[in-house]
Amino acid sequence: MAERVKKTPAKNKKPEIMHGKPTEWADSAAIGKLIGKTARRVQQLTQEGVLETEVPPGGGARKYRTCETVQKYIAHIEAKAQETGENSRTAELNLKKLEAEVELKESQGQLHRLKTAIAEGKYISANQATEELAEFMAAFKKFTMNIPPRAVGTLSGYADAITVRATEKTMRKELETMLAAFADAAMEQQEERQP
Known about the structure:
Elements: E1 25-26, H1 28-35, H2 39-47, E2 64-65, H3 66-119, H4 126-145, H5 147-155, H6 161-193
Antiparallel strand pairs: 1-2
């Protein structure tokens, strides 16, 4: 039985090693050997304008100037590599630009929603909030300081007057201390928030 020989495609084929000095003029097959491509690919590169043929002195079929052709091919490969690098850098910059634009649009959308909520009365100004909080704290203090007399009114039937007065005084002092500590803590937090 005859053994099948597996052919390797031209892409995977390594360029042949050439011995001796290259001739000044070469055909597409010889150029292909020099650059590691097929004669057909050399012809395609010629049609694309990458490589050029000339009529050698003395006439005959069009051929390639060997050294100039190899140099043009190398320049072509280097230009493609540089272009690929520039294209990937441009693509990266475009991607970053798009991401920045998306973030900008999202923040503009958030700002619009916030302005709409403010216009609809869902938020109040800091001055108004401060005023309302001060009013609430005053009402809370008044309510809190009314707890001892109300509690003492309930105790008056169960304890003597001196005990009732002492209890009221102790409760009032304890509430004042607690309210002062609460106010101090609030002031400290406000000072920490301010730069």
